[in-house]
Design goal:
By secondary structure, the protein is an alpha/beta fold. Helices cover about 25% and strands about 35% of the residues. A nine-stranded mixed beta sheet has the order 2-1-3-4-15-14-13-10-11, with helices on both faces. Strands 6-5-7-12 form a four-stranded mixed beta sheet, with helices on one face. A two-stranded antiparallel ribbon has the order 8-9. The protein is globular.
């Protein structure tokens, strides 16, 4: 059954409008962009978006007390992390000289580097545009999404999970990296489903139907 109420966490960073519109288009009956803990905790499902500098994102989350709200959310309902929203769920990021993150996933977030190559071809950083995602596991969030489906990415840093069992999908851009991660009620993507057209819409629809089990 499609979720009746979805909260998009608003901490002053992220593509909040586009994420909310994508959820509505996917079939959510009610989407609330909010920083109110009570509204977030009352929602059926929660989305943690993120763009920009991870230090600023983490700082705003903690200042608003939303780091604890996220801990409470993932105990009992599905959470979808997007882009920096995914990266913040790891232990630490190399960005800005090193940033302690929320620690829900073991592992770190690393810079692609200034010397990134695919064979003899030098690649630009950030990784920006469409790329294929190879699904690592059979998961309800991949329902009706083909293997090696293309999604839209914009990022200069990539996650390196400490446990391979947390990887739901991989991508290659000079190096292999985690494009999607899972743990309990969390499913998080490095790519932007709200910018990924048909495949992104399907993933949003899957999120609205997912009960957090797999």
């Amino acid at each position: 059954m499609t979720a009746s109420r979805v909260a998009v966490i608003d901490y002053g960073m992220g593509n909040l409008h586009s994420v909310a519109k994508a959820l509505e288009h996917a079939g959510a009956m009610r989407v609330e962009v909010t920083s109110d803990p009570a509204i977030i905790l009352a929602a059926d499902r929660v989305v943690l978006p993120g763009v920009g500098a991870i230090r600023d994102c983490i700082s705003e989350l903690r200042q608003l007390g939303l780091d604890q709200v996220i801990r409470d959310v993932i105990k009992e309902k599905p959470l979808l992390g997007i882009c920096v929203g995914m990266q913040m769920l790891f232990e630490r990021s190399e960005e800005n000289g090193g940033v302690d993150c929320l620690g829900h996933f073991p592992g770190k977030v690393s810079f692609f580097g200034n010397e990134l190559y695919d064979g003899d071809l030098r690649l630009k950083v950030p990784h920006m545009g469409w790329n294929q995602v190879k699904q690592s596991i059979d998961h309800p969030m991949w329902h009706r999404i083909e293997q090696d489906a293309r999604f839209y990415f914009v990022h200069s840093y990539h996650a390196q999970p400490g446990k391979y069992t947390h990887v739901a999908g991989r991508c290659h851009y000079g190096v292999d990296f985690a494009a999607a991660v899972i743990q309990d009620n969390i499913f998080a993507t490095q790519f932007h489903p709200e910018k990924s057209h048909t495949n992104g819409l399907q993933l949003m629809q899957n999120f609205l139907a997912w009960d957090g089990r797999w």
